[in-house]
Design goal:
The complex is a heterotrimer. By secondary structure, chain B is mainly alpha-helical. Chain B has one domain: Cytochrome c oxidase-like, subunit I domain (Cytochrome C Oxidase, Chain A). Chain B contains 18 helices and no strands. Chain C has a five-stranded mixed beta sheet. Chain C has a five-stranded mixed beta sheet with strand order 4-10-9-6-7. The chains are: A mainly alpha, B mainly alpha, C alpha+beta. Bound molecules: protoporphyrin IX containing FE and copper (II) ion (2 copies).
Chain lengths: 213, 610, 240
């Protein structure tokens, strides 16, 4: 991609008109990568806590599928993965200066992302009815209260990230409609994509360890 | 978009806005002083706020010391405090615990950390790498304006029902997880929320620093020519970036335990109190290095300048910082030797902790090497930096006692720990901060601080600091526990009371001397001697431009030819050599950028590549 | 300010003290060398007209030396610390013939629970004592440390013994005292408002004394007194 080749790798004599070569990513993109490292650590703390608690108190955790609705969530996972694909399509569209394509694929991503959140809310409502709640005192579902506490902590914060992502996508869409992006000016779309793929990736990890194992 | 940023960058925010780039127009008052995006102004804003918290934390310390020396006696002056804190000036246990907690919290999160990272990171990174500003100036502004509400929430928690958090700055669960144990409900929640918000501020800053250092170094400023301050702040930013989210996760779990009835840390319903400690210290040990690495950088800078010598072992200094940043992640268990953690883990953490003392030792020896054979100018920043070395040695050595697990059995959670942490944080970080403030004050405000008063402040601080904190080692060895409201309740501690009285008097003098510094700091803005661009005859890029630097910092992009520590270069008539002075005809002519390139310059100046 | 530790009275105390003094000597030497060099350099190389500072960027040999030597020293310290730590804290190495009691910490007191005459903790004549831990001299004692609320820390400076009490867990620790007497016990972990007055005593009896004391207690406990009354009686007699 042209924008990643921004800084040449060759080290000749110092070029007084250019900064020292960095990592080859423009500021916004580098900044997003750096920020995502921080996000990795955030989810590490939540997932780490879950793993420790689960090892310490296996009796608090029910077998996969006993409490949680695995098929529904599997479908939801598929929705989120699709939204990553549409996000890639959006970026590819603007790289060819296809404004309509960009807008369409962004709308698709927003719809898929919102669907994911919607299904999650639906799932929460049902789980609450079954007594699967974060509040230890009110917990009546299978396993024990730690199950509820950790489940809502991890999926809740992931859902929050998706929701924030949808909000940002809407903002990017507005910018796109205003014609702010072009093949030579697509940092905003690319960085949005990085975040979105990250959130998707986190979900695949969460789905695996929370629902399947 | 000007010509120098033609690297096919997809956006126009990519490269520093140099002063030469845009027409000058005076920003409005609000844009200039309040919602400023200028890194130098943001540094000053952080400076103001963190000095306020430093003073507030010091005030709490005074009150705690009064209670420790004269338990139960009414403290003069404070009898205006409400009866929930100190009726008639008599400090209550609940207020004492709140003060213990808030003193640590203020000092670590709202004073030392923002002073080192917020002030010096913001001020020095763009100036020393030759950039016009940070990579994301707007984000930088947010970093400050998130810290302010965090601080306000923390202050407000004193006023809510039940008072401020009282479970210590380490907030061990379950004491902190259920208000039933302390009588503090909302106060503890505000504490958690405040630190959570402050975390956003720190991460925003870290993203900015890392991006800026990687992408925006001036041409010729290779990694091994960076001033050690920039190295230290860069590595610190990485630690902040990776450690703060761990704390954030832990804070959320504690907050939901308090408010939503989850049970992460509450044992009755299956939670694990030790999980809090593991998460907290997994953050906490990198955090203590966040609090010292920038100090290392500042001290290196100032010592080399004072000694008029290149820093001894530049590469070793960089490697030591990097080594600390790696090892810092695998030693957290040394805070938990007595916690009931598996003793085998204790042994593992003892080994890693012992090893992490080595890079600190390397730094000390290199500082001594820097002084060796120098021509030492005892300017005020140098005095503080030299004192730093002396005091940090003590703090590092006391760390060895605690790293030995059997010895730690006796001294864990005693005043020995209090002595250690004050030797590294006050003797270390704060002395480095004094060095840094007095050194870069002229760059920030264009005027020098009054040197005589600064020297008086230095001498008083050094003496009374040691009188106050050194005896704490002894109290700890005698078995005086930390965070005690009234030590005389214990028989064997009552005998030590004269020491507590002595320490308290020393602290009163110590705090008194700080008043001198604050007054000097403020008055010198108007009365100080005009500094000129380079009052210390220093080398790094910020000294090649006016004090204070204009918006956008550099008129033209500086081109760097050497490292930052080329002092007393043989054959050069001055004993300093700016990083951007062209090698051929130093300081005579400033050729156009295009002609400045001198491929042989790098070869000639091999010293700079060290 | 006293660098010497008050003599310890437990069997492993002297080993901790020995490590402490070894570290004190080593760090003391480092302390004096580095502080001396610092002051010496500051005086010797102070600014002088006509002096120019040496122009040197360091010495790889020096770097290697002052990396390797501290590394070896701290590693050695860790190595000599390990066996002492294991002896004190590793449950697998606890002494065999130990006398066992349970201590429950709670805001803000210590409750020692003794087994009845049949060796069971829930026997009819098992009994509890508040803020006083009676143990025999010259015999290993294993204390099962528990907490009823928050984290406390059982700290007897003269034994060189400290262990946190965790709610939800029973943590074993052991000690053997070599001199009869009364030794103060404190709480070392901030545990709330009364942290500062959570003191107690460990009372170390000679073997005969201890047996006599225990017999008396067992008799009192077995004599149909209810648990609460018993506790109250003990508190009245035993507390400060
Ligand atoms: C030579 C390197 C160091 C070693 C070997 C070391 C070792 C230790 C150990 C083992 C403890 C835990 C003691 C206990 O609670 O029983 C400790 C506590 C502490 N250390 Fe260090 N340390 C070193 C350097 C530093 C530095 C550079 C800082 C900060 C700038 C620092 C700040 C602290 C603080 C704040 C605590 C107390 C935390 C608390 O419980 O409130 N240490 N250190
Ligand atoms: Cu640590
Ligand atoms: Cu306690």
């Amino acid at each position: 991609m042209s924008q990643t080749a921004a800084v040449s790798a060759a080290r000749g004599p110092v070029d007084p008109t250019r900064p020292e070569p960095g990592l080859g990513a423009y500021n916004l993109k580098l900044g997003m990568w750096v920020f995502l490292l921080s996000e990795v650590m955030f989810f590490t703390s939540l997932i780490g806590a879950y793993i420790i608690l689960r090892f310490a108190h296996p009796e608090h955790f029910a077998a996969p599928g006993e409490v949680l609705n695995v098929p529904l969530t599997a479908a939801n996972t598929f929705v989120l993965i699709c939204s990553s694909v549409t996000m890639v399509k959006a970026f590819a569209a603007i790289a060819r200066d296809d404004q309509k394509g960009l807008q369409l694929w962004l709308v698709a991503t927003i719809i898929l992302g919102s669907t994911f959140v919607g299904v999650q809310v639906y799932e929460y409502i049902h789980l609450f009815r079954d007594g699967f709640v974060p509040n230890a005192a009110a917990y009546t579902a299978g396993g024990g209260p730690l199950y509820g506490s950790t489940f809502y902590l991890m999926t809740g914060f992931h859902g929050l990230h998706v929701s924030i992502g949808v909000g940002c996508l809407i903002w990017v869409l507005i910018q796109a409609i205003r014609g702010r992006y072009s093949s030579s000016h697509l940092g905003g779309v690319e960085v949005m994509g990085l975040y979105w793929h990250f959130v998707d990736l986190v979900w695949i990890v969460l789905f695996t360890i929370v629902y399947l194992i | 978009m000007s010509a120098h940023a033609t690297q096919e960058a997809p956006n126009d925010w990519d490269f520093p806005a140099f002063a030469g780039d845009h027409e000058h127009h005076e920003p409005s008052f609000i844009r200039k002083y309040i919602f400023s995006t200028d890194h130098k102004m943001i540094a000053k804003q952080f400076l103001a706020v963190s000095l306020f918290f430093l003073a507030a934390g010091g005030t709490l310390a005074l009150m705690m010391r009064w209670q420790l020396a004269f338990p139960g006696q009414p403290m003069p002056v404070v009898d205006f405090l409400p009866s929930t804190m100190a009726p008639g000036g008599i400090i209550l246990p609940e207020f004492y615990n709140a003060m213990v907690t808030m003193h640590g919290t203020f000092m670590i999160f709202f004073a030392i950390m923002p002073l080192l990272v917020g002030v010096f990171g913001n001020l020095l990174i763009p100036l020393q790498i030759g950039a016009g500003d940070m990579a994301f100036p707007r984000l930088n502004m947010w970093s400050f304006w998130l810290a302010v509400p965090a601080g306000l929430l923390m202050l407000a928690s004193f006023a809510v029902e039940g008072g401020a958090a009282g479970a210590g700055w380490t907030a061990y669960a379950p004491l902190s997880a259920d208000g039933e144990y302390t009588g503090v409900y909302l106060g503890q929640q505000l504490w958690l929320a405040s630190l959570f918000i402050l975390g956003f501020s720190s991460i925003a800053g870290a993203v900015n620093y890392i991006t800026t250092v990687i992408n925006m170094r001036a041409p010729g400023l290779t990694w091994l020519r960076l001033p050690l301050t920039v190295w230290a702040l860069f590595i610190t930013a990485i630690l902040v970036l990776l450690a703060i989210p761990i704390l954030a996760g832990a804070l959320i779990m504690l907050l939901t335990d308090q408010t939503l009835g989850t049970t992460f840390f509450l044992p009755e319903t299956g939670g694990e109190p030790l999980l809090w400690q593991h998460l907290f210290w997994f953050f906490g040990h990198p955090e203590v290095y966040i609090l010292i690495l920038p100090a290392f950088g500042i001290v290196s800078e100032v010592l080399a300048n004072g000694a008029r010598k290149p820093i001894f072992g530049y590469t070793a200094m960089v490697l030591a910082i990097v080594a600390i940043a790696f090892l810092g992640w695998i030693v957290w268990g040394h805070h938990m030797f007595m916690s009931g953690m598996n003793p085998v883990l204790g042994t593992t953490f003892m080994f890693s902790t012992m090893v992490i003392a080595v890079p600190s030792a390397i730094k000390v020896f290199n500082w001594l090497g820097t002084l060796w054979g120098g021509n030492i100018h005892f300017h005020v920043p140098f005095l503080h930096a030299a004192a730093f070395v002396s005091l940090f040695i003590i703090g590092g050595l006391s760390g060895i006692f605690m790293a030995s697990t059997p010895v730690d059995i006796h001294i864990h959670d005693t005043y020995f720990i209090v002595a250690h942490l004050h030797y590294v944080l006050f003797g270390g970080s704060l002395f480095a901060i004094f060095a840094g403030i007095t050194y870069w004050y002229p760059k920030m405000f264009g005027r020098m601080m009054n040197s005589l008063w600064n020297r008086i402040h230095f001498v008083g601080t050094f003496i009374f600091y040691n009188l106050a904190f050194f005896p704490m080692h002894g109290l700890g060895l005698e078995g005086m526990m930390r965070r005690l409201y009234d030590p005389t309740q214990y028989g064997w501690l009552a005998e030590l009371q004269p020491w507590n009285v002595f320490i308290t008097y020393s602290v009163f003098f110590l705090v008194g001397f700080q008043v001198i510094f604050f007054v000097n700091f403020i008055l010198s803005m108007w009365t100080g001697r005009e500094a000129g661009p380079n009052p210390w005859n220093a080398n790094s890029l910020e000294w090649s431009i006016p004090s204070p630097p204009p918006h956008g910092n550099f008129q033209t992009i500086p081109v760097v030819y050497r490292g930052a520590y080329e002092y007393s270069v043989p054959g050069h008539e001055r004993d300093f050599l700016l990083q951007n002075e062209p090698p051929d005809d130093a300081a005579k002519r400033r050729p156009e950028p295009a002609q400045r390139v001198d491929p042989s310059g790098q070869v000639k100046d091999r010293g700079g590549d060290q | 300010m006293n660098w010497l530790l008050e003599p310890s009275v437990s069997t492993f105390g002297p080993e901790i003290d020995r490590l402490y003094y070894i570290i004190l000597v080593i760090t003391g030497i480092v302390f004096f060398i580095t502080q001396f060099l610092l002051v010496y350099f500051l005086i010797k190389y102070r600014k002088r007209e006509g002096r120019t500072a040496a122009y040197t960027h360091g010495s790889t040999r020096a770097e290697i030396l002052w990396t390797a030597v501290p590394f070896v020293v701290v590693l050695m310290l860790a190595l000599i610390s390990k066996p002492v730590w294991d002896e004190i804290k590793d449950p697998a190495l606890f002494p065999e013939d130990a006398y066992e009691v349970t201590v429950v910490a709670r805001q803000f007191e210590w409750e020692a629970q003794y087994a009845g005459s049949n060796g069971e903790f829930d026997a009819d004549d098992s009994f509890t004592v508040l803020n006083r831990l009676h143990v025999p001299v010259n015999q290993p004692v294993i204390v099962h440390l528990e907490s009823a609320d928050v984290i406390h820390s059982f700290f007897v400076p003269r034994f060189r013994l400290k262990q946190d009490a965790l709610p939800g867990r029973s943590i074993p620790m052991w000690f053997e005292v070599t001199e009869p007497g009364e030794y103060e016990l404190g709480c070392a972990e901030l545990c709330g408002l009364g942290h500062y007055r959570m003191d107690g005593l460990v009372i170390v009896h000679t073997e005969e004394e201890f047996e006599a004391w225990k017999a008396e207690r067992l008799a009192a406990a077995g004599g149909g007194v209810t648990g609460t009354e018993r506790a109250q009686a003990m508190t009245g007699e035993e507390s400060r």
